[in-house]
Amino acid sequence: MIVNLIDYLRDRLQTVVYCCYGVMAFIVIWSMSVDTSHAHTWAEKAIPGFWSLFGLCSCAIVIMVARWYGKSGIQAREDYYDN
Amino acid sequence: MTISFMHPALIMIVGALLLPLVRGPFRKPYMFLVPLLTFFDVIYLSQHPGTYGVFQFMNWELTFGRVDRLSMIFGFIMSLMAIIGTIYGMHEEDEWQHIAAWFYVAGSLGAIYAADFITLFLFWEMMAFASTFLIWARKDEESLAAGYRYILVHTFGGVVLLIGFVLRYQATGDLSFVHLNVQSPELYTWLIMIGLMLNAAVPPLHSWLPDAYSKATAIGAVFMCAFTTKTAVYTLIRSCAGFDVLIYLGIIMAIYGIIYAVMENDVRRLLGWEIVSQVGYMVAGVGIGTSLAINGACAHAFAHILYKGLLFMAAGAILTSTGRQKMTQLGGLYKKMPATLIFMLIGGLAVSGLPLMSGFISKSMIITAAFESHILWAGFALTFVSAGTFLAAGLRLPYLVFFGKNNCSEETWEKAKDPVWNMQLAMAIGGFLCIFLGCYTPFLYNMLPNTEVVFNPYNAYHLSETIQVMAFTAFGFFMLRKYVMPTNTICLDMDWFYRMGGRGFYWLVENPLQWFDTALSKFYKAVGINCLMTTSAFWSWFDWNGIDGVVDGTARCVRAIGRRISIVLQRGQIQQTIYYTVSFAAVLLIAYVFI
What we know:
The complex is a heterodimer of chains A (83) and B (595).
Chain A: H1 2-11, H2 13-33, H3 42-46, H4 50-74, E1 75-77
Chain B: H1 8-18, H2 27-47, E1 50-57, E2 60-67, H3 69-88, H4 95-113, H5 117-136, H6 141-172, H7 187-199, H8 208-215, H9 218-240, H10 245-263, H11 267-288, H12 291-322, H13 338-352, H14 358-372, H15 376-402, H16 410-415, H17 421-439, H18 441-445, H19 460-480, E3 489-491, H20 495-569, H21 574-594
Antiparallel strand pairs in B: 1-2
């Protein structure tokens, strides 16, 4: 059942992607209507969709830092300790 | 009313010792019963807080059973995890693994209920030694080496802890395991903290964790991911709450772990790095030290044990069926292992803190505590890490193992299948609890140590914050996924220093020291032996001619005198002999009387 569902969605990948974009747009719009009295800093109130931006930047930073760090010599061949 | 105290660790120890005797059809019910009994004992104890099991040993008072709200919540989750882990490993015939695992659980429970440093140390070391056998039980060369590294590192940590509390005893005469004065820390405070920190895998003392957990058996790793680090978090809460250096260390740990998790190729190493990162939240919470932060650290440890156990169970299922744990050798497995996919997704989403999952209600407490204590940078850093966590464990891991490019060899693909019923049952229990905790918050919140704190994670703003962060992390992953593909590499880490340092030591021994030793023996052969031979030849001559000459000469002299005397005095005539004897006796008598 699960396999069939996944195959069904994979066959319609483009539609799934568009749906996800739709959901993301909805989330951002909804976030603007949410009461911001629980916000921790002024930035969250001033910038619409602050946490969306924060999430995207965090993800990009983590990926890029990991890539840079790995390429700088931290990622070594698998038999590094064997010889 | 006095209540009878039965230490939960004792049940596990006796259970483990009797395990080899229970065979055949009784084995599985027995294996279920012992952790269950322990769990009921823990619940029974939590109804009766107090101090039990106090013994006088030499000058010290040892307390085995301190039951309060803090030890209660940790005892509860540890014994619950013991049940889940044992169910997961029930099919395993190798009884040594079960014995080691139960001793390990006993060590953890013992440390949790201990109220003095000696008892704590006893159980602390029991944990380290028992868990080493869970690594060695895999019985290959890599595991053997990893086990040795693990035990050496933990022995080092144990010794630092030992020095710490002995110094404290010397300075204060106090051995009780209570909150240390972290406002004006002494040397011993630092040493105790470092000893405890090593078990919590705080950088730079963390490399043992991904190293050991990825080399342990599938069952061993499920136990290991729960007990060592979380027991250490408990001890840190108990002794070092509010030590602000822990905030910095916790945040460094959380970020460091997540960067490595994104680079990692090995599934279980990735999960190990996730532990480092998640324990970073707890350590930061301990450092913040407010009631909310401490509650958050406890809640996160509780939730973490369940979802991380679930993730390690899923990873163990993959390892058991395919024999592979590198992402470059896996992929596309959803067709063969759909149940495992579901459990790994539940675990991955729970660790990422998706609303209605356990991670959401626990992690947010620590982040809120950071913001409420006006440590804004810490709050933002931890939110940043939660995005990274979702990226590594919620997206990258399931994507590369179950979807993505199929890197499986034909043999791997053939072998891949969902695991046996008991492993699936254990994962189902874990998965259910991850969702149950997230949906029904009072279950966990009512157990937390600081009862005065009121916290509600489900407000609209917080929900919107979390969902935005997660949605856009997913978007970022979708756009940048080609940069996080696995490669056939290993990631160098702090263990480089002791692995290469160990080799440096070998080199030192094999080359300069060996050379010196050889040179010394050659020199000895050439000079020393000759000298010795000459000296001994001289002494032999001296002995023969000098000493023996004197002794023999004396003997010869005595003999000659004797002969002369016998010629003069003993001529064989009885009258003369009597005359000499009587005269001699008379002279002696006169001399005695007059002198």
